[in-house]
Design goal:
heterodimer; A: 2 domains; two-stranded antiparallel ribbon; B: mainly beta; four-stranded antiparallel sheet
Chain lengths: 297, 82
Amino acid sequence: MFEFDWTRSRGDADLSQPVPGNLQVPGQPGAVPAPNILTPQPAEEPGEPDTLPEQTPAAEPQRVKRTKQGINKKGDLNSIKELGQLSIPQTKTNIHCLPIVGQIEGHIVLPPQNKTTKYEHLIPQLVALEENPEIEGVLIVLNTIGGDVEAGLAIAEMVTGMSKPTVSLILGGGHSIGVPVAVAADYSFIAETASMTIHPIRLTGLVIGVPQTYEYLDKMQDRVVNFITRHSKVTEEKLRELMFRTGELARDIGTVLIGKDAVECGLINEVGGISAAVRKLNQLIGERKELQGGFIQ
Amino acid sequence: MSILYTPLPIEQVLEGIDKDGRQYQEIDIGGVKLLVEQQSLESARVVRLISSNPMDYLNSKFQPGTELKFVPQFSREEESLT
C-alpha cells in the first residue's frame, strides 16, 4: 500500500491562513482572522461565536473539524482557495459506466503512443458489475478505433451475457471491432456526428502464429459478421455489402456510417446522446425490476 | 494468434514497438486502479483512472496530473520494533 500526498494543492502555502485539519478557533492564541478576499462570507449565525470557544481544540482538534459548520464553511472555502474547485459530494449510483477508448488491446501490448483499453481491465470489471447487487445497469461508452479481434469479441460476449440491462453509446467513433461491442448491449445509441467504419478484416490484418491465408482471415471475419447480425437488426447480406462496397473509402473497400446511417441500416437502435442513453437504461432497469418482482410473488 | 481489426494502418499502430517508450505503472489506491507515470524514486503522476464507477471520476484526488508521493518504509519495521 502506498502513502500519498497532494502536492498540487501546496502551491503557495501560507501557514498563517487556515488550512484543512488546522482550523483556527477565535479566542485561541495565535489565531489570525481569515481575510475574506475571494467571497463575501455570509453573516455568522447568532450563537456560533459563543459555542465554539467552549470546546477544547488543543485536546481534540478533530472535533471542531467534524462539526457541520466547520465542514461546510471552512472546508469548502479552503478547497476553493487552494484548488480552485469545490469538492463534489460522493453519491451512490446504480449505473456504472465502461469507457472503451482508443485501441482495444488484446494479446499483444501495443506501443505506448496508442491509447488502449485492455481486456484484463474490462473483463474483471464486467464480472464485478454482474456480481454486485448495488449495480443495476451498465452504460458502455465507445470511442474506439478497433483493435484485437479476440479481445473485442471477448468483451462483446461478456456484455451480451450479462443479466443486467446494458446500453451502449457511440461517441466519436466505433470502428471495426468496436461494432460488435456496440451491438452487444441490449440497446445501442449513436451520437449524430459519430461514425462507424465497416470494412473487411484483412484491410490491415496482423496475423501472428498462423499462416495468413485467405481462408483463415475469412473465418475470423465470419465470427465478427455472425456476432453483429445475431445482435442487431442488420442482415448478413447488407453487412457484407457495406463491408465490400467500393468507391466510398478512397483507397480501400468498406463504408463509413455516420450517425443516422448506422440506424437506417439496422446496426444501431437509435440516434441519441447521454441523456437518451441514461433514460433508456433506467427504463430497462425498471422493466427488469417489475419482471423480477412478479416472478418472486 | 492475434489479429488487429482496425482502419488504422498497421505501421501506425505498431510504431515504436521495438523501442522503450514511456512506461506506466498500475497501482491500487482505496480500491481504485490508477495508471501512474513514475517521475522519481518517490513521486508519480496520475495518467489515467480505471474505474467503472462514474463517481470516482468526480473525485479531485484521482484527476490526471495529480502527484502521488511514495513514502519509504523498512519492510521489516514491525520486527525491529518488538
